[in-house]
Design brief:
Layout (H helix, E strand, L loop, with lengths): L16 E6 L6 H14 L4 E5 L5 H11 L8 H25 L3 E5 L2 H11 L8 H7 L5 E6 L2 H15 L11 H17 L4 E5 L4 H17 L1
Parallel strand pairs: 1-3, 1-4, 2-3, 4-5
Helix pairs in contact: 1-8, 2-3, 4-7
């Protein structure tokens, strides 16, 4: 979106909104997105629920590369560029058309995840991708950040993967320090953009978190 600038909002009517969900692994994002999608559809809103990476057929192929635990030699800079490729494809192919059609977009992870995971987690300097941000990205109206400790994240991941009889993905194999850096980065990002972020206690019950999310969105949609 060259003419709009980095993080600029797309022009749209009151029923159209770009909403992102962020948090470290197993923080409850997917559950809350599904609950919100069902409620909004029941109220008559047109909704697109999607995720990054993997919101398009191209993105699903990129997702396989990024999460495959066998790809241990994938370089951090290559990882970063794969995420950006997925994001640009996703925006052009799916998200922007949905917003232009008047839909509410619920997105599981967006560019804040890159700042947290590749910036803080991998320790990359992200200044060199700012021209790409300016050229291609738009800004969410609201970002819900579900907060749990890195220790709780690993506990939940271990339980989930054991119940599903699946192995850790490439990121889930990282050590505790990796997730501690990400957790701290998310907090710092939210402090810098407090007008966009809503912080939620990921240890609360699913219903309580959902009601808090819906209460905030109800006010925004009414305005």
């Amino acid at each position: 979106m060259k003419d709009s600038g980095c993080w600029e909002l797309i022009s749209r009517d009151c029923k159209t909104m770009f909403i992102t969900f962020e948090g470290i692994d197993a923080s409850g994002k997917s559950t809350q997105i599904s609950l919100l999608e069902k409620r909004l559809i029941k109220l008559g809103y047109a909704v697109l629920k999607t995720k990054q990476p993997g919101g398009t057929s191209t993105g699903m192929k990129i997702r396989e590369i990024l999460l495959d635990p066998d790809n241990r030699k994938l370089q951090p800079e290559a990882e970063l560029l794969l995420y950006l490729a997925d994001r640009i494809q996703h925006l052009r192919e799916t998200i922007l058309p949905a917003l232009q059609d008047g839909k509410i977009v619920l997105l599981d992870r967006y560019h804040d995840a890159t700042v947290a995971y590749q910036g803080a987690g991998r320790g990359l300097d992200l200044d060199w991708i700012k021209p790409l941000e300016i050229e291609f990205l738009i800004k969410p109206e609201v970002t819900f950040l579900l907060l749990i400790t890195p220790e709780e994240s690993q506990k939940r991941l271990h339980l989930r993967n054991r119940l599903l009889n699946q192995q850790n993905c490439r990121f889930e194999n990282e050590n505790l320090a990796f997730f501690q850096r990400i957790h701290q980065a998310y907090i710092e990002i939210s402090e810098k953009e407090s007008d966009r972020f809503v912080l939620l206690d990921g240890l609360e019950t699913q219903d309580k978190i959902h009601e808090r999310i819906f209460e905030i969105l109800e006010r925004k949609l009414a305005n």
